[in-house]
Amino acid sequence: MKLQRADEMEQFQNDKSAKSTYIFFTLAFLLWSAINLISKGKTGWEFTILMIGNAIFFWSRVFYKRKMK
User: Fold this and answer.
1) For the segment 4-28, what is each residue's pLDDT rounded down to a tens digit?
2) Residue 13 and residue 1: Cα distance in Å, rounded?
3) Which of 4, 27, 30, 63 has a 20 to 30 Å separation from 45 between CA atoms?
4) DSSP letter at 6?
5) Could you read off the pLDDT of 31-49 as tens digits, one per residue?
6) What's the pLDDT at 45?
7) Which residues contact 1 (CB under 8 A, 6 or more apart)?
């Protein structure tokens, strides 16, 4: 199986899809954390997963931005 490099249109579509997915998962974990905070008084693992995911996202943006310079 040979992998092909994505053209500009596929890269654009992947970027849009990734953005939508990121927003969905961020809001879902945030809502889940808020519901648990209100009902149980603590956030649980979902908030930890949200924070780790956001840290990885922003760290990778900084990394790739510096790599492009």
Assistant:
1) 787 888 888 888 999 999 999 999 9
2) 23
3) 63
4) -
5) 999 999 999 999 889 999 9
6) 92
7) none
CB atoms within 10 A of CB 33: 20
Residue among 56, 45, 64 at smallest CA distance from 22: 56
Closest CA to 18 of 49, 53, 46, 51: 53
Residue 14: alpha-carbon gap to chain centroid: 13
- How does residue 1 score in pLDDT terms, banded at 50, 70 and 90? low
Q: Is 7 helix (H, G, I), strand (E, B) or coil?
A: coil
Taking alpha carbons only, the member of 18, 19, 49, 16 closest to residue 32 is 49
Contact 42, 36 (CB under 8 A): yes
